[in-house]
Structure prediction request, 512 residues.
Amino acid sequence: MRNVDAERVRALPLFSGVSDELFRDVTGGCFLQKFPAGTTLLMEGDPVDFLYVLLDGSVELGASWNDKETTLAVLQPVSTFILAAVVLEADALMSAQTIERSDILMLSGEALRRAMKEDAQFGFAVAQELSGCYRGLVRSIKNQRLRGGLERLANYLITQRVKQGGGETFTLPHEKRLLASLLGMTPENLSRAFSTIADYGVVVNGPQVTIARPVVLERLAKPDPLIDNHRPHGLGPVGEAQRERGLGDHSPQAGL
Amino acid sequence: MRNVDAERVRALPLFSGVSDELFRDVTGGCFLQKFPAGTTLLMEGDPVDFLYVLLDGSVELGASWNDKETTLAVLQPVSTFILAAVVLEADALMSAQTIERSDILMLSGEALRRAMKEDAQFGFAVAQELSGCYRGLVRSIKNQRLRGGLERLANYLITQRVKQGGGETFTLPHEKRLLASLLGMTPENLSRAFSTIADYGVVVNGPQVTIARPVVLERLAKPDPLIDNHRPHGLGPVGEAQRERGLGDHSPQAGL
DNA sequence: CGGCGAATTGACGGACGTCAACTGCTGTGG
DNA sequence: CCACAGCAGTTGACGTCCGTCAATTCGCCG
Prediction:
């Protein structure tokens, strides 16, 4: 692992409080692999032996049943994933695949569990990470069950605007196809939702979105701090009670 | 706290591995309260200072937005809840209210966090608990997004049958009204789903349900171990990799 | 006996999924 | 250099699932 990469991993909330020695223990037998776009890293039901850390690129966490598919989260660097399965030594409940060319670090699950049992500080950090992931999922379920498709889209757009600096116009981070799946609808329906939402001052031009009248859009979206985890982009210095991950776009950050 | 109650708490996976001393520390300044049915213990957005342990009765975890409500879980004794909020010292994302007369133990969140930071073993147990809760929610989202209402009901019934011993007939543990909300549908729709599902050999008589032809019902339900957490009732001795909570009825066991 | 709430049933409408056709872009190979 | 294939995105038509409103029945408890 290169030094720059090590530092980026080290800067994760998970590792920021631990000793250099413990960090070396955990990252001891690790791999850094580069995967092309569309690579399946993990399938639902697979046993999990590594904690994955996305350093570059992006990864989709998805699930399927009875020939239907849905995406539960899209991860951006730097994020860990499948922490929960590693802690329990359990099989994966979601599949993971790269969306673009990605650099991924794989940490030994066994070393991680050992470190947790030896270092209470690190164990606490893992518990905090898991708590944040859990709360991210709670937000996601509330978003899913309490709002309709149009409302989900409206809130997604508001969240994206905030995350990208709050300017009047921003860029959709994913293909619309993928966004639809993340929002729990079909691509056709997302397309219709975009045309409906034009009445609320949203202008779409390819991946460029501009929110002309934020107030009008907010009256539709009714964003709620207990569902939408708005945080100014670049997440800055994080205080004690704010280490919550879980994302404004209702994606669990890490876990599984 | 009575001795019988202490033993029941002690028997929770969370505490089963810790020293007597640490257990006394954590349960030091705790309250045991009895609440009547319908009592609101916690509202969304409230700050959380205690870890709750349901000893008797049952508790609904729910959420609301824009005059809509949904129930995310129904807890049975013995369960802990709002662990995640306690770990992060964060506000509640769900509300909690008793469904029937309930005995509830309230443990100091501060003491719990202190114990986690002092005892790596306990911290690990908390991480395992949180992981199980997280995975329960993942199952819940998959159930919600990938299956239709009829399929959710069918799988719920199969899960209940297993949990209650696998006999041909069993009892619905909640009012149908509540069950509907848990399954993410309206009472009217649940009623219709019950009458539709009669064609698959399900006979309903008040709270009594008998599954006449399990094979036919399973062909409809297509239960999946990656969604439905079937485990024979009474959960027996649990091995290392099987401490997963999260419930076959797709309810997170503890957390929030 | 009367009233309340749970449960059921029917009628209706809206939201959403499905199927199909069409557009525009991109990359590939003749 | 252009023709063509392939895929994302859009649009329309249609059907289904599900929520809403209303009326009714039933059981429980005052």
